[in-house]
Design a protein that fits this description.
It holds the Pfam family NorB_cytochrome_c-like. InterPro entries: Cyt_c_oxase-like_su1_sf, Cyt_C_Oxase_1, NorB_cytochrome_c-like. This is Nitric-oxide reductase large subunit. The chain has 761 residues and is mainly alpha-helical. It is built from 27 helices and eight strands. The termini are far apart. Strand 5 and strand 6 form a beta hairpin. The strands form three sheets. Strands 2-1-6-5 form a four-stranded mixed sheet. Strands 3-4 form a two-stranded antiparallel sheet. Strands 7-8 form a two-stranded antiparallel sheet.
Length: 761
C-alpha cells in the first residue's frame, strides 16, 4: 500500500477515535443524575444516593446482567427491571389518578386499567404520562421529589422485589433464596426504581426521557422519537451508498492485482519448532472449553422451558440460570481468544523461517499455565458471586463484576491482561529478526506486531470502571471491550494472521495480501470505531449518540457485503487442489467465516441496528439471533480456521483426519443455522411483535416468555443443538486424535533411528 494510503488509514483511525472519545465525554456530561436524596411529596426522605449505588453494586455482584436486564442490556429471561419498575410505577400512578388511597393505588393492576371505559382509560393514561414525565429533580439541592404516584409505588416495589428474590420464581428462573437479606433486596429496588425514573422522566428542557423514551411503554408516554425513524432511514441510504463505493474500490483493487492463477503449495511433512508444538495443548484446552460452552448454552436455553429445573430435576439452587449464562458467555471469549493467541504464538517462528528465541517453549508453557489459572479462577469467582458468597463491597475483586462478557473479577481481569502482555512479548521476540529484515514499517510483519499490541491494549479499557461507576459511563467503556476489542481489533489481528497463512500456502501473493489487509482494516475500523455507539442508543446518552451510532453502524455492514466475493473466491481456492489438497478443510472453515460474517454479522446485525428497530427489539430474543450468528458464526469459526491452519503445519500428515473435519464442519454449520431458523428467529419475531403493541414490560413478562409459543420455539432447538454438539464432539475428537497420533509418531522416530543404527552395527 502506498504511503498516501497509509496516511489516509492513520487519519481515519485518529479521527474516529477522536469522535468516540468526544462522545464518551458527552455521555459523562449528560448522564442521568443520581440524586443525593429522594423525598416524598411530604418532604420525608425515601432513599438516598448511597441506597441507589449500594443497590447497583448488589445487583451486579449477584450476576447483574445475567439476571434480567437494565435498559435492555442483559439476560432475556426474567424481566427488564427498568421496564418492570417503570410500568408498575405507572399503574400505581393510575390508581392515584383514579382517586384511590396510596395502598390501594399500589395494588392497581393492568387488568384494572384495561377494564376502564375507553374514554376514562385515555384520560388516566394521559394524566399518568404527564405526572411521571415531569422532572422534579433540583440540582441546586441535589434532591428528587417524588410525585404522588411514585411515592405510592415505591413501598409496593420494595415489598414485591423482596418477596420475589426471597421466594424465587420458576417462570423467571430465579431460585428461592436468591437474595435472602431484605436489606439487600431493598437496596436493589432503589437501583431499579432509579433506572425506571431516568427512563420515564424528561431531560431538563426536552420532551423525551434520559433514555430517549426507552423502554417502550404507552402507559407512561414512552414512545419512539421521530429522530429514531429519521436516522434509521438515513442509515439505510448510507448503507446503499457505502456498498456501491466499497464494491467499486474492491474491484479496483482486484484489477490492480490482476488475474493471478492460484497454485496451492504442497504440504511437506511438518517440522515445527519446539514452541510451535507447545501450542497444541492450547488448542486441545480451547476445544474442551468450547464443548463445555455449548453444553451450558443448551442448559441455559432449557431454563426458558422449565425455569429452575432440568427435565424435572430441581437444579436452580445448585446451578442457577445466572451462573450458566455467565459461564456460557465467558467461555465463548476464553476459548476463542485461546485459539487466536495460540495462532499468534505459532506464526512467530513461521515468519522467521523456523528461528526460535532461547527459552520460547518454556515461556509458552508458562503462559498456558497462567491462562488455565485465570479461567478456573474467573469461573469459580463468578459462580460464588451469583451464589451470594462474594457479594460484599469488595467481592467483585475476585467474584462477579456483573456486566456481560466481562463478568470475571478484577483480579482475574488484571491477570488476564498480564497474560496477554506476556503473549505480546513472546510474539515480539519470535518475529524480531523478521521485523529487522523488513525495511517497510508498514509491511505484513510490522502489521502483525501492531495488531498484536492492540489485543492487551483494548482489553485493558475494561479497567476504566468498577461496579460503582455510573451505569451510563460503565456501559460506554464496556462496549469498548466487547465491540472494539472483539469485533474490530481481534478482527484486524485475525486478518493479518490469515494473510500470512494464505501467502505461506501460495494462495495469494505477499503484496496482494498486504493491499487486501490494509483495505480490510480501513473498512473495519473506519466504520467500527464510531459504530460502537449503536450499542448505546438508550443507555442514558444524549441524542447525538443515536445519530453517530445509526450512521456508522450502517457503514459497519459495508465491508461485510463484500464477503460474498470472498465466499466465492475461497470456495474456488478450496476446490482448486481437489479433494486431496491438504488445505481443503481449513479453507472450508474460512469459507464459513465469510458466510456467517455476511449473514450473521451483516444481515442479522442490520436487522436490529437501526434505532427504530432496536427501540422495540432491544432486550428481546431478536438480539441473540445476531449474537449467535456473529459470535460463533464469525469469531468461533475464525478461531477454528486459524487453529486448523496452525495444526496442519504442526502435526504429522498421518495424524490428520479429513473425515472428522467434514462431520465437524457440517454439524456446526447445520446446527447453528437450525438453531437460528427454527428457534431464535421465531421466538424473536413473536416477542418483537408483542413489544411493539404492548411494550417491553409485557414482552419480557412471564406471560410471554413462559407462553406456549416460546416454549415450542425453545424445544425446537433440541435437534439443531444435538447436530451442533455432534459437530463439536467431532472437532474435539479430531484435535485429541491429531495430537495423540502426532506424539506417538514422533516418539517412534528416535526408536526407529536407534534400531537402524543397531542393525547397521
Amino acid at each position: 500500500m502506498s504511503h498516501k494510503g497509509r496516511a489516509v488509514l492513520l487519519f481515519v483511525i485518529v479521527a474516529c477515535f477522536s469522535v468516540l472519545i468526544f462522545g464518551g465525554a458527552q455521555i459523562s456530561a449528560h448522564k442521568p443524575p443520581i440524586p443525593g436524596r429522594v423525598v416524598a411529596p411530604t418532604g420525608e426522605v425515601v432513599l438516598t444516593r448511597e441506597d441507589i449505588q449500594l443497590g447497583q453494586r448488589q445487583y451486579l455482584s449477584r450476576g447483574g446482567q445475567q439476571t434480567g436486564s437494565i435498559w435492555g442490556h442483559g439476560a432475556y429471561l426474567a424481566p427488564d427491571w427498568s421496564a418492570d419498575a417503570l410500568h408498575r410505577t405507572g399503574l400505581a400512578t393510575a390508581g392515584v389518578r383514579r382517586g384511590l388511597a396510596p395502598a390501594a393505588a399500589a395494588a392497581f393492576t393492568q387488568g384494572d386499567l384495561q377494564a376502564l371505559p375507553a374514554g376514562e382509560r385515555g384520560r388516566v393514561q394521559a394524566e399518568v404520562a404527564e405526572e411521571l414525565r415531569q422532572n422534579r429533580y433540583d440540582p441546586a439541592t441535589d434532591t428528587l421529589t417524588l410525585s404522588p404516584g411514585q411515592a405510592a409505588a415505591y413501598p409496593a416495589l420494595v415489598a414485591y422485589y423482596t418477596q420475589l428474590f426471597r421466594d424465587g420464581s420458576d417462570a423467571m428462573s430465579i431460585p428461592p433464596g436468591f437474595v435472602a437479606d431484605p436489606s439487600d433486596a431493598k437496596a436493589m429496588t432503589a437501583f431499579f426504581f432509579w433506572t425506571a425514573w431516568a427512563a420515564g422522566t424528561n431531560r431538563p428542557g426536552e420532551a423525551y426521557s434520559y433514555t430517549a423514551n426507552f423502554p417502550h411503554d404507552p402507559l407512561v408516554g414512552n414512545v419512539p422519537l421521530p429522530s429514531a425513524l429519521v436516522w434509521s432511514i438515513a442509515s439505510v441510504v448510507l448503507l446503499i451508498l457505502g456498498i456501491a463505493a466499497a464494491i467499486f474500490a474492491y474491484l479496483k483493487l482486484r484489477e490492480r492485482d490482476g488475474h493471478q492463477p492460484v497454485t496451492l503449495a504442497p504440504l511437506r511433512e511438518p517440522k515445527p519448532t519446539a514452541s510451535q508444538r507447545a501450542v497444541l495443548p492450547y488448542f486441545a484446552i480451547a476445544i474442551v472449553l468450547f464443548i463445555l460452552q455449548a453444553a451450558l448454552g443448551s442448559v441455559t436455553g432449557h431454563y426458558a422451558v422449565e425455569g429452575n429445573k432440568l427435565f424435572g430435576i430441581q437444579i436452580g439452587g445448585l446451578l442457577p440460570y445466572a451462573a450458566t449464562r455467565g459461564w456460557h458467555l465467558q467461555l465463548a471469549v476464553f476459548w476463542i481468544a485461546t485459539c487466536w493467541l495460540a495462532t499468534g504464538l505459532f506464526i512467530g517462528p513461521l515468519v522467521t523461517g523456523g528461528h526460535e528465541p532461547k527459552g520460547q517453549k518454556a515461556l509458552v508453557w508458562t503462559l498456558l499455565g497462567a491462562l488455565v489459572v485465570v479461567v478456573v479462577g474467573a469461573l469459580t469467582g463468578t459462580y460464588l458471586g451469583v451464589a451470594g458468597k462474594l457479594s460484599g463491597p469488595n467481592g467483585w475483586l475476585v467474584g462477579h463484576q456483573g456486566y456481560e462478557y466481562i463478568e470475571l473479577g478484577r483480579v482475574w481481569q488484571v491477570a488476564l491482561i498480564l497474560g496477554m502482555l506476556l503473549w505480546l512479548a513472546l510474539v515480539y521476540r519470535a518475529i524480531k529478526p523478521a521485523l529487522a529484515a523488513e525495511k517497510d514499517k508498514g509491511g505484513l510483519t510490522h502489521l502483525l506486531l501492531y495488531a498484536s499490541v492492540t489485543i492487551p491494549l483494548f482489553y485493558s479499557v475494561g479497567l476504566f470502571y468498577t461496579p460503582g461507576t455510573h451505569i451510563a459511563v460503565a456501559d460506554y467503556w464496556r462496549w469498548w471491550v466487547v465491540h472494539l476489542w472483539v469485533e474490530n481489533f481481534f478482527e484486524v489481528f485475525a486478518t493479518v494472521a490469515l494473510a500470512f497463512i494464505l501467502s505461506k500456502i501460495g494462495a495469494v501473493g505477499e503484496k496482494s495480501a498486504q493491499r487486501a489487509t490494509y483495505f480490510s482494516i480501513l473498512l473495519y475500523l473506519g466504520s467500527g470505531i464510531i459504530g460502537t455507539f449503536h450499542h448505546l442508543y438508550f443507555t442514558g446518552t444524549p441524542l447525538m449518540i443515536t445519530a453517530l451510532g445509526a450512521t456508522f453502524s450502517a457503514l459497519e455492514i459495508v465491508p461485510l457485503t463484500l464477503l460474498g466475493f470472498e465466499v466465492y473466491e475461497n470456495l474456488k481456492l478450496a476446490r482448486s487442489g481437489g479433494n486431496a489438497t491438504p488445505w481443503r478443510w481449513p479453507l472450508y472453515f474460512f469459507v464459513a467465516v465469510a458466510f456467517w460474517n455476511a449473514v450473521g454479522a451483516g444481515v442479522l446485525g442490520f436487522l436490529i441496528n437501526p434505532p427504530i428497530v432496536l427501540y422495540y427489539g432491544q432486550g428481546l430474543n431478536t438480539t441473540p439471533i445476531h449474537s449467535h450468528g456473529a459470535l460463533f458464526g464469525v469469531y468461533g469459526f475464525l478461531a477454528i480456521a486459524l487453529m486448523l491452519f496452525s495444526m496442519r503445519n504442526i502435526v504429522r500428515t498421518a495424524a490428520w483426519s479429513d473425515r472428522l473435519l467434514k462431520v465437524a464442519f457440517w454439524g456446526l454449520n447445520g446446527g447453528l443455522a437450525g438453531m437460528i431458523v427454527f428457534s431464535l428467529l421465531p421466538a424473536g419475531i413473536y416477542q418483537f411483535a408483542i413489544g411493539i403493541k404492548e411494550g417491553l414490560w409485557y414482552a419480557r413478562s412471564p406471560a410471554v416468555t413462559g407462553s406456549a409459543f416460546i416454549h415450542a420455539a425453545t424445544w425446537a432447538r433440541l435437534v439443531p443443538d444435538l447436530v451442533f454438539d455432534a459437530g463439536a464432539l467431532a472437532l474435539l475428537v479430531f484435535v485429541v486424535r491429531a495430537i495423540a497420533v502426532d506424539v506417538k509418531l514422533r516418539r517412534a522416530e528416535p526408536r526407529a533411528a536407534s534400531e537402524v543404527v543397531r542393525k547397521a552395527a
